[in-house]
Amino acid sequence: MRKNRFGNRLLLVLTFLFLYAPIFVLIFFSFNATKSRTVWGGFSLQWYVRLFQDEAILSALRTTLLVSVLASLIAMVAGTAAAMGFAAMKRRSRHTLMSINNIPLTNADIVTGVSLSLLFMLAIGAFNATVGKAVGISLAKGFGTMLIAHVTFDIPYVILSVMPRLRQLDPHIYEAAQDLGARGFYAFRKVILPDLMPGIVNGTIIAFTMSVDDFVISYFTAGNKVSTLAMEVYSMARRKISPEINAISTLLFISVLVLLIIVNLRQTRQNSAVRRQRAALTPKT
User: How many CB atoms lie within 10 A of CB 251?
Assistant: First the structure.
């Protein structure tokens, strides 16, 4: 039994080492004073300084943050409304729609990116050939199409985060609030929304993280005029391997890691609060 336990722990350590050793090497050499990727030349922050002096990187960063914030906020509203609609459906219909909702999560990014790109090209071509030709406006893929694409794959994360909170909600609490004199929207805002807020916040943070981290779908839907941070890193890697790539990759990794830690801490606190509430409601014998 002890040998099996030791072997399991060793396998776990080797697995994490295999997954994260390259990232730690990248982070280590992002502070290297020289351009060498194999020889340590001393500690330096020069690549981070140069990174924030690069206008192309700063422009890509602004685009990434703007798209991620807008997409996560739109997905927050749409996903919450969709989750409430799913909760009000019958079990069979809800199960079918939840299965459809999970398709963007399990589908390959390359398939989603290509399909959305073809859809946008078809829609833009039809618009330019009809309405655009009449009014003298010509559309093209850019910030708007990329934003729609990000909203598309962000919504399922919000739905999956809000649905558990809806299952825990008393189905008669909204009617009770109305019986006590609260109007429709006021009852929703004061009674339903506070209970859903932890799931809404978690879903929004996850959606923001996925938008910041996305490359494939953005690459196929952004067009030639806009570029996200991940796309800029890809273009830099194609031109030359610069230590600035190590610096920007380190910042991306730390940002995503911090957001995931926040989500996990919030989820742990929520689970602890639910357990305490159940323990308080359970009669003592």
Answer: 17
